[in-house]
Specification:
This is Oxidoreductase. Keywords: Oxidoreductase. It comes from Roseateles chitinivorans. Belongs to the short-chain dehydrogenases/reductases (SDR) family. By secondary structure, this protein is an alpha/beta fold. It has ten helices and seven strands. Helix 1 runs parallel beside helix 2 and helix 1 crosses helix 8.
Length: 260
């Protein structure tokens, strides 16, 4: 990607809809050009960001695969990345023993493997330049055992922990790492994860633009972590003092299929 505008560059993954699309729009509104990626068409996000004055390049690729990460990284063409918003991820509902393991592996490879691969590649260049911002989309789901979402919550527990650790490793540099921890958000996540027949799938959710604004501002301020929404902040606090067995039972009531 060639730098012809003089604007800083932000890379946003999972940008086709939901939080990722809104994060891309936040970047466009605040003066960034964009390289966006997702495993689905990106034309609507491209048009919306261009309307905000950004130059936009889009890569449709599966970031769960090494080839997908290679394609995104190659598109940079050595242009420095000022902000990496690693948002790609998806969920998977129902009981673990009933899930297809290829679907399980794809969640892990999207939420963890591909995310870490991209962060390492871009983060090394940021460290070499001693400049850059990284925003990683974790989840308050990572703070609790995810009954009927065991794999998804496990991946987000990994990501939440990883973000804090990477931030500490970079504390003597000018590269910041922020983890955004949303709660249930009004996106296509629940349809794709087959959670529409659950209580959490049918309850009222936070608008993605609110979550994205919270995350973007935390990234720009260099904060370590931010939980989007006051109800989710309360839930995060309670998760730290509630026994895991109790949290698992509470999660069952929210995510058990057929309990909408």
């Amino acid at each position: 990607m060639n730098d012809t505008s003089g604007r800083p560059l932000a890379v946003v993954t999972g940008a086709s809809s939901g939080i990722g699309r809104e994060l891309a729009l936040e970047c466009a509104r605040h003066g960034y050009d964009l390289l966006i990626a997702a495993d689905r068409p990106l034309a609507e996000t491209v048009a919306a960001c261009q309307a905000e004055g950004a130059q936009v390049q889009a890569i449709e690729a599966d970031l769960a695969t090494p080839g997908g990460v290679d394609a995104l990284h190659a598109a940079l063409a050595a242009r420095p990345v000022d902000a990496l918003l690693a948002n790609a991820g998806h969920g998977l509902g129902h009981a673990f023993l009933d899930q297809d393991f290829n679907a399980v592996r794809h969640v892990i490879d999207t939420n963890i493997t591909g995310t870490l691969d991209l962060i390492q590649r871009v983060g090394r260049a940021m460290r070499d330049r001693n400049a850059g911002k990284i925003l990683i989309t974790g989840s308050i789901a990572g703070l609790m055992p995810g009954t009927f979402q065991a794999v998804y919550n496990g991946t987000k527990a990994f990501i939440d922990s990883f973000a804090y650790a990477l931030r500490n490793e970079l504390k003597d540099t000018n590269v910041s790492v922020t983890v955004l921890m949303p709660g249930p958000t009004d996106t296509e996540f629940f349809e794709r994860a087959e959670l529409t027949d659950t209580k959490v799938g049918t309850q009222r959710k936070q608008p993605p633009e609110e979550v994205a604004k919270t995350g973007y501002e935390a990234m720009e301020d260099g904060e370590s972590a931010v939980v989007a929404g006051w109800k989710n902040k309360l839930q995060a606090v309670l998760a730290n003092v509630t026994p895991a067995e109790v949290l698992a039972e509470q999660h069952r009531r929210m995510a058990e299929p057929g309990k909408a």
